[in-house]
Amino acid sequence: GATNILGTDALTLKVTGTAAAADLITLDSKTSVVVDAKAVTKITGTDLTVADVATVLAAKTIAKAADVAVEITGNNISAFQANSIAKSTTGVVTAKVEGSAALLNSSLKDAKATDNLTLTVSAGTATAADLKALDAKTLVDVDAALVTTITGNAADVKTVLAADGIDTNANVAVTVTGTVSAADANTITGATTGKV
């Protein structure tokens, strides 16, 4: 084993394929040389070890590809944690995140349309603008089934209710702001059984 190797040893370590963040941290502690992880295609962790992932992505002593993918399994992580990871790589980020539409949208500033973020919007009111923005931050359908009321202008509301990438409750209530044409009103009332 490598249990007797010290961090002062000048070992040249090259890692390929998929690597757990915890393993990369361990390897980093066993050499004074920068760990070559540029051939690692995916860094993995869980909701319990997401801090390890952040450490690896920020570490100057672990060389990584700019587009390394990151996968967090287990339970939800915070929107702040997910965004920190997304900001640190151009690769695909896979994770589960839950929160209000407003919180998710404001926190996930660096999430990309190519990310595999499973976003669950918590119960309550959500603006159509926030839901539209969230749909553009992930390849996975946004789970807005718990949202009880959607608010916004007619154009945004219509977009959300018709969007394939946003799952809303069939009886979600809608509050439309501004002027609404008869055609838009008919489209919106036809898209939900909830109060409009």
How would you describe the overall organization of this protein?
With 196 residues, the protein is α/β, with parallel strands linked by helices. The chain is built from seven helices and eleven strands.
Tag the structure with descriptive keywords:
single chain, alpha/beta, elongated
Quick structural overview:
The chain is of the alpha/beta class and 196 residues long.
Shape: elongated
Span between termini: 67 Å
Global structural class? alpha/beta
**Roughly what fraction of the amino acids lie in strands?**
25-35%
* Residue share in helix: 25-40%
Number of helices: 7
Number of strands: 11
Mean pLDDT: 95
Radius of gyration: 22 Å
Main sheet makeup: 6 strands, parallel
In sequence order, what are the helices and strands, one letter per element? EHEHEEHEHEEHEEHEEH
Return residue spans where pLDDT drops below 50 for at least 5 consecutive residues.
none
Secondary-structure map:
Layout lengths: L13 E7 H8 L6 E12 L3 H9 L3 E3 L4 E5 L5 H10 L4 E7 L1 H7 L8 E6 L2 E4 H8 L6 E3 L2 E7 H9 L3 E3 L4 E5 L4 H10 L5
Parallel strand pairs: 1-2, 2-3, 2-4, 4-5, 5-6, 7-9, 8-10, 9-11
Helix pairs in contact: 1-2, 2-3, 4-5, 5-6, 6-7
